[in-house]
Amino acid sequence: MAERSRAQIVLYEAIALLVGLLCGIPFGVGLASAWTHEAVRALRVAHSGGVTVGLMLIAIAAVSDRLRLGDGAASVLF
Fold this sequence. Notes:
Blueprint: H1 3-32, H2 37-63, H3 71-77
Helix pairs in contact: 1-2
């Protein structure tokens, strides 16, 4: 995978991780303030989902130079 593609994956990872971490702020406030169960659950999913996607993109960027993919498969992965 080209260096530019890897850099873009790292940028997307940073954005996803930041959004996921920022969703943790209202999640904590909701837990402390006894918000409705549905609101707390939605914020928990947003927080954990964003962090998980960010970590997955870190893993993809870390191994992307070792993958032997054709142009089509690399485009799908990217």
